[in-house]
């Protein structure tokens, strides 16, 4: 048996390794430099190793409002996540049936993804200013970010419902279930793993969104805007320490969602096993 691999295997392997280095290399570099000693700078070589710059983050800063910006980004991310899930499910359910103007509405929703983000931010900011409304991260900022997250959630739910077998709903209705009971006890449990994916998508897209929040956040920055502003004032590895912590936080959020999915899958398999034993 010939086990010799073709040259294309080694070429693709090398390409994949280079791609991974290109993708994660900057993040790893920032993580390493964030552990510089008190005399360390923004570049190599490192001058000692310590947690000095992480400690500086938790002290009162003369410049910037890191933790206030983090709280705003976290709260905004949760709100965007919840609204994205709710409206994506509603839109996905609506598009399961043909209605007048469905095609036009579909393209209007998707158009938000191809419009430059800075133009969306400018447009939303102008609308609020011309209407006499306060430009604020929780109003105009929320609206601008939803123009980014909702189309993604909508596309995911379209894909999910295109594979959904309506026979389950018909069986529930044959048993006398109402429309709400059919959705609550049949549809929702079956699409729950996908909803977690939409929720994670919505939160992460909101949490690190910069362009669409730039002109809509008002006088209070979100975390990406705060970090951008700090690059002009802070020239120490403390900025790298902040980047490292935010990266760790992002991985923690992803881990929580993955753990939730695994727990839900385990519960479903356990229920199925118990049901099978009950039939024996």
Automatic annotation (TrEMBL):
> Which UniProt key words apply to this protein?
Cell membrane, Membrane, Transmembrane, Transmembrane helix, Transport
> Domain ABC transmembrane type-1 spans what residues?
70-257
Q: What is the lineage of its organism?
A: Bacteria, Pseudomonadati, Pseudomonadota, Alphaproteobacteria, Rhodobacterales
Subcellular location(s) per record = Cell membrane
UniProt xrefs under Gene3D superfamilies:
MetI-like
- Its membrane topology, per UniProt? Multi-pass membrane protein
Kindly list the biological process annotations in GO that this record carries: transmembrane transport
What protein am I looking at?
ABC transporter permease
Q: Which CDD domains match?
A: TM_PBP2
Q: Give the transmembrane ranges.
A: 9-35, 74-95, 104-128, 148-164, 185-205, 238-264
Q: Which GO terms describe its cellular component?
A: plasma membrane
Concerning its family, UniProt says: Belongs to the binding-protein-dependent transport system permease family. CysTW subfamily.
